[in-house]
Every structure is written in C-alpha cells, then in structure tokens.
Amino acid sequence: MIQKVSESEVSRAIIEGFTQDLLDHTSTDVIIVGSGPAGLTAAHYLAKQGIRTLIIERNIYAGGGFWQGGFLFPKTVVQAPGNEIIEELGIQMDEVKPGLYIADSFRVVSKLLSETAESGAKLLNSTYVDDVIFKDGRVTGVVVNWFPITQMPKFITCMDPIALEAKVVIDATGHDAFISTRAREILGLEKIDPTKRRHGGMNIDEAEEAVVAHTGETEIPGLVICGMAVATINGTPRMGPIFGGMLLSGKKAAEIVTNIIKGTIIVEK
Ligand code: 48H
Fold this sequence. Notes:
FAD/NAD(P)-binding domain; globular
C-alpha cells in the first residue's frame, strides 16, 4: 500500500526544503559558478571539509561538459595523475596506455555529483549569475536570477535579480569565463569583447599544464578561477576532450580557497 499524501503537502515540502537551502546560503563560505568537471571537483573537496559551498548552474542539470567525452561520445578520458581523483571516488578506470585512462562518462559524472552532494554542497540550478557584488575592491558575492527569464520576451523580463554573498567566489564557467570577464570589466583592467577573448589552438600537453599552473586567485581579491575559464582568460591552448587538467584545476582551486578561508577572519553576518 502506497502512503497517502495530499497535493499541498508535496508542494509545501518542496517550497520549505528549497527555501531553507537558499536561506542557508544567502551568505556562505564559497560560491562556485559553473558545475562542470572543474567546478564540481572544487565543490567536492571544499564541502567535504565542512566549508559551506553553493554551486550555481544555469542549466537544469549539473555536470557541464563532463557528460560527453568528445564528439558527443560519452567516454571520459583523463591522463595521470587526474585518474587518481576519479579513482578516489571509487571508480576503476580502464588503462588505454600507461598513464592514459578511460571510463563511461555517466558513471564518472554521476559518482562525482553524488559524492559532491553527500559532502554537503548545495546546487542552485536553472540559475544564472548575471553580475558580481564588488565592494571595497573585492568580489564579495554574485547577482543571480532564474535562467528561464533569459529565454522570455524582453517586455516581461524586467525582473530584478537577488544577490548572494560569499567569502570567496570561484569562476568555473568554462569557455565563457563570465565572472572573471565581468570583474575585470568593473575594475577597468581592460575593455573586453567576450567574442575576441579566446584560448589558443589545441595542444593537449601545453594546455593541461597551463590550466593547472594558472588556476588560482585572480588579480581581483575574492575571486578564484579554475577549469577552462583559465585558458580563456590567459589565452593558453585548448586541450580538447581530455579532462585530467579540469579535475586537477578544480582540486587546486579548492586548496587555494581553503587557505584563503582558513587564513581570513570574517565577521559573520
Ligand atoms: C551560471 C554558468 C554561467 C553563468 C556558465 O563548460 P564546463 O564543463 O567547464 P569546466 O571548465 O569545468 O570544463 C571544461 C570542459 O567541459 C571543456 O569544455 C573542455 C575541456 N574543453 C576543451 C576544448 O578544447 O574545448 O562547465 C561550465 C558550466 C556549464 O554547465 C555552464 O552552464 C555554467 O558553467 N555556466 N552557470 N551562470 N553565468 N556561465
């Protein structure tokens, strides 16, 4: 016999559950914009230490470009030592050749998502970051709105956003590098035409080293960058459908953010 419930009880459970999560994160430790491989890895390592972590994703689902390997084929390929991050999740990868590994993308992504959720990170999906909060020379949060409104006719989109504060914001927006681009624009560091600011051509080895090397705090205090956004901002090569650099970049971002948070005394709001 299936438990009987009323329609309004179901509605109430959803509304209360979601509202409580949102209230808990209006002022949080870390906001990660983008839930691709880099953002998710960062979220996983941060949340499992008890650091309050909110992931914001404009898509209805999390995972970004991690669901497909390349050419729409769902195979995840990583090179050492990126495989260690996946194997830490309990997934044994197949060895293609020494140091190069493969697994089904849906296995890898679903496990990373599940472990990240178990760590305590929260996901705000179908939500896009439209701007940053910029105060006293640092990024102190993000301005968000429902993503679906961007698809509506202009005359009904005059809906003001809301803002969420964080000690650190991570730009994990992939190729767009949206948060860093916007923050640099506010600072007047350069006039950016987003269509022109691109990564270089493909060179896997150079691209992967460069992404990890340049992952970290940006010139804008409070803003850390990881993943493909690093290549976009620095104009370094692209790596194509290999993900070791994305995972290692996300892990490095988490280590840097941990140091910032543990070394910073913030007055709780
Ligand atoms: C909310 C946003 C916003 C916004 C973007 O693209 P991703 O998978 O990013 P990474 O860096 O974790 O991984 C990059 C990888 O997937 C890739 O593209 C590679 C390796 N390319 C190599 C090559 O040569 O092309 O995920 C970014 C996520 C996406 O889910 C976006 O929807 C989301 O960020 N996002 N979410 N507000 N303003 N902008």
